[in-house]
User: Which sequence fits this backbone?
């Protein structure tokens, strides 16, 4: 099924926040017109398993399997593994749900058999009947390292084991220089009619994608609207450590601060009504600004926000 | 804690049946006097995990974690992983319980880090507070292959995937020639005051142990009582395919058939009262015969049978 009159959309996303808008897009545009490029800087090896938290969150969300309370993990999850792991006194700092484990086991098995992360992701999505294209930002490993007041921590140790408590002094995306974007991501970006930067943590979810060589230039060169949704609303992050990290790194914790940080790859910026006062400043930065309710609590919210964004662009008039 | 006046016991065991008598021994003799040597011919790799079914069954049984209905696996188990695996259309022919998975993940991780199977087993037993010594029959991989009417099948494919249905024409213990017994198993057998052959499948559980080079000779040379309990009672196996396989391989399906098969490494044989008629024939084979109720349904049964066996040997008079 191709719809040649319907524009191609590329969206960049990380975990929970990004997955919400990705869900809205998935439910709004034809699946064959939608490509999601997902952060893999949070990936890590744990108990011999290759875990890709952001890919999993997006997959589970699109497949309507995600836990609605947490936004990550699988709904109606059981925790037998963790119970037994604690009995053994084994590592229990990273929650591995029993259903979730099937994803990790299959991914790890297929990677070990020589498949690329992209092939594995496509196969998992296919088996969950996810129709759109979900691409890891690279097949090569990129690992986010957090420079903190307590030293350099691998991302999951900072985020999960240390609950984002240490003060952040910098971020490194180890391996990024040797990573390559997927050829299909390159061609899809080049043919995109609209690029969406989902409301993910700019430092932890979007920056690693932009750190993959050529990706930032590709996005800058893309001759189409490039619209982001601010993950900072009312001076705080909807979820996660974005606001705390931005402050620690000297960035303004506001829609303006995020827009400045991502300015290279944006032409438009969607902010919440609570932040309407920032409109003039954002416009003065050359951005097309849209002000609306950006909080996505329900699936209806996700779809409504998506439609409001698309309606701003003539190509998407319905 | 050593009790130098108390005899050393070595028991050979496989899975469910063997684990029952192993439990009886564990509850009856001082832990530091008991060494269990466990079949690893059933071990296999599945979804990247190293699974040792017989070691697990023995560990779970001794730790009072075993599922009392099945005899294998963990009690109060959950099955979230299998549910998700079926959602993916992934391999679901081998039941992996959620709690059980902690064992497989830790074992696999530690083996990959360079520990031997014996070291891993000791660590797992230690963490489950199992006081006696549980030894794999070898640190080297030995894999039972079943020659069948449908070709050669790896053991778990024969046993689980094909439910022991194909007719068996032979058994091979691949890797056995390159395997070595553990040095601690050798010295413990040489110092044993009593050797017990638990009521495990003689072809699938005891033969692989005897196939490890020097193991059969060591047991033959051991100058102590060597007592087995018949796994065949009333012409049938208590559990599993022992009777069917024995018949297919032309062995007499009776306590005599098993005793003949294991004659090299036995001085005594314990049979069920229902099989009392075989006593004369077994005695004529030179075996010391004990007739009692050998069916172990409850933990009390396991301990009673153990005590009855030990009471036959003056060293164990209490």
Assistant:
């Amino acid at each position: 099924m191709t719809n040649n009159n319907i524009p191609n959309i590329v969206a960049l996303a990380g975990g929970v926040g990004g997955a919400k808008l990705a869900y809205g897009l998935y439910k709004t545009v034809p699946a064959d017109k939608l490509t999601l490029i997902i952060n893999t800087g949070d990936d890590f090896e744990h108990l011999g398993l290759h875990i890709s938290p952001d890919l999993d969150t997006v997959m589970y969300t699109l497949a309507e399997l995600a836990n609605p309370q947490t936004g990550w993990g699988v709904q109606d999850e059981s925790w037998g593994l963790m119970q037994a792991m604690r009995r053994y006194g084994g590592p229990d700092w990273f929650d591995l749900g029993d259903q979730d484990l099937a994803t990790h086991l299959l991914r790890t098995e297929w990677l070990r058999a020589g498949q690329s992360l992209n092939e594995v992701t496509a196969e998992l999505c296919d088996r969950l009947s996810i129709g759109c294209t979900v691409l890891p930002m690279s097949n090569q490993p990129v690992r986010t390292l957090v420079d903190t007041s307590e030293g350099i921590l691998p991302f999951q140790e900072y985020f999960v084991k240390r609950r984002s408590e240490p003060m952040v002094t910098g971020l490194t995306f180890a391996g990024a220089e040797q990573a390559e974007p997927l050829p299909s991501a390159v061609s899809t970006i080049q043919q995109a009619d609209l690029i969406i930067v989902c409301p993910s943590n700019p430092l932890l979810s979007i920056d690693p994608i932009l750190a993959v060589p050529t990706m930032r230039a590709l996005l800058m060169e893309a001759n189409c609207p490039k619209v982001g949704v601010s993950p900072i609303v009312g001076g705080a992050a909807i979820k996660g450590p974005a606001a705390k990290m931005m402050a620690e790194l000297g960035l303004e914790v506001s829609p303006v601060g995020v827009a400045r940080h991502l300015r290279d790859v944006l032409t438009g910026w969607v902010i919440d009504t609570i932040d309407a006062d920032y409109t003039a400043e954002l416009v003065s930065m050359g951005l097309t600004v849209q002000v609306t309710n950006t909080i996505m609590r329900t699936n209806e919210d996700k779809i409504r926000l998506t439609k409001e964004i698309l309606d701003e662009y003539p190509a998407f008039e319905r």
